[in-house]
Amino acid sequence: QVLIESLERPPSFDLQVAHQVGRVPMNVVQKRVRKLMVEQARAATEDNRTQAGKLLGVSRQAVQQIVRQD
């Protein structure tokens, strides 16, 4: 539960998203958010991609695919 609480969105998240509207395509923002979530989950699980996937509700393979993306 502590891990999940550490992944909750920070108060400034809404402001960050609002700042992106009209400036950055939504798919770019989504890609950035996915990457950040995977990085946080990997850090919270000591780089265990299987556990990171479980924490995020995705497969280990999905975590690996996101890690490999630019």
What report would you give on this structure?
- The protein is an all-alpha fold and 70 residues long.
- It has one domain.
- The mean pLDDT is 84.
- The chain is globular.
Query: Globular, elongated, flat, extended or rod-shaped: what is the shape?
Result: globular
In total, the number of domains comes to 1
Cα(first) to Cα(last) distance is 30 Å
What's the overall average pLDDT, rounded? 84
List keywords for this structure.
70 residues; 5 helices; mainly alpha; 70% helix; single chain
Q: Topology, pairings included?
A:
Layout: H1 2-6, H2 13-20, H3 26-44, H4 49-56, H5 60-68
Write a brief structural summary.
The chain has 70 residues and is mainly α. It has one domain (2-68).
